[in-house]
Amino acid sequence: MQLLKTLCQLPAPSGEEAGLTRFLLDYVRQHGPGWRQPPLVVHDEARFQDCLLLVFGQPRTAVFAHLDSIGFTVRYGRELVPIGGPECEAGYELVGRDAQGEIACTLTVGAAADDEETEALGYEFSRDIAPGTSLTFACDFRETDTTVQSCYLDNRLGVWAALRLAETLENGIIAFSCWEEHGGGSVPYLARFIYETYGVRQALICDITWVTEGVKAGQGCVISLRDSLIPRRAYVERIRAIARASGIAHQVEVEGIGGSDAKDLQRADIPWDWCFVGAPEDNVHTPHEIVAKADIASMVALYEVLLREL
Q1: Model confidence over 113-136: pLDDT tens digits?
Q2: Distance CA 7, CA 12 (A)
Q3: What is the mean pLDDT of residues 156-181?
């Protein structure tokens, strides 16, 4: 879990993924030569900005894992603007850095002056913070025998799972994308490059979903039948058949809201198949996201099987 803790501590709100990308490049350079199939590293800022592709062998399937997290942008007059959809509770600890130095402040939540139903987000700190500064939840990583808890398990846990998959992957592509939490935008050019260069047009979305009344913590990785988008059922049923045959604990999800990197694949002018496969978490988009270790193990094991069989 030390690697996961490190990933959760690295600030990378939407639009500022570059530091995390540099960490991953260094990690792959250090560890990649010892993996079963050392990958081709595709990182070209002119074409892919802060995204990163790892290409293994003769790929048939691409795994998309987004690097970015939710957070806040400092506006004016101690006002904060959310990045993505963070859950906001007064007193949450936020961290960042501007030209004057390190920042450790607290979130304030009040009613907007012009609309009592709208939350006015701000910060409490010993000085004014430079407008445009990004703030993220302070990381308090907690581990027990059965769970891990931290901010940004969505989606640093997905990134971690992809790196674990990379250790044994012989044929496939791992695509680390940007901006997912704040509307997406990087997947279209990644998808086109992958399709045109390697002929790959089937994907798995390596992300974290929710514990709900129908999805329980500790009962296995989730295969999503739908969220706000609907994948092609024939492809999803192939994945479910592989999962059943594997004997790996898993469960299915049916939602009418939410989304992922899949939205850019579904709206592309390329016939991509996709399916969301990920562990469920509770306390979503808070500093206290929590995931069962059994579901993490299930997620890694299921990805290893799917990348062999699809």
Answers
A1: 666 666 899 999 999 999 999 999
A2: 10
A3: 98
Return d(Cα 278, Cα 148) in angstroms, integer.
Answer: 15
Domain boundaries, the chain: 2-69+142-309, 71-137
Q: Is 71-137 in CATH node 1.10.8.60? A: no
| CB-CB neighbours of 27 under 10 Å | 15
User: What top-level class would CATH report for the domain 2-69+142-309?
Assistant: alpha beta
d(CA 256, CA 226): 7
What does the block give as tokens for 213?
């009344």
Contact present, 27 and 159 (Cβ < 8 Å)? no
Predicted pLDDT of residue 174:
98
Give the pLDDT confidence of 27-55 residue by residue, as tens digits.
999 999 999 999 999 999 999 999 999 99
Average pLDDT over every residue of 293-303 = 98
To the nearest 10°, report the CA torsion of 29, 298, 154, 31: -10
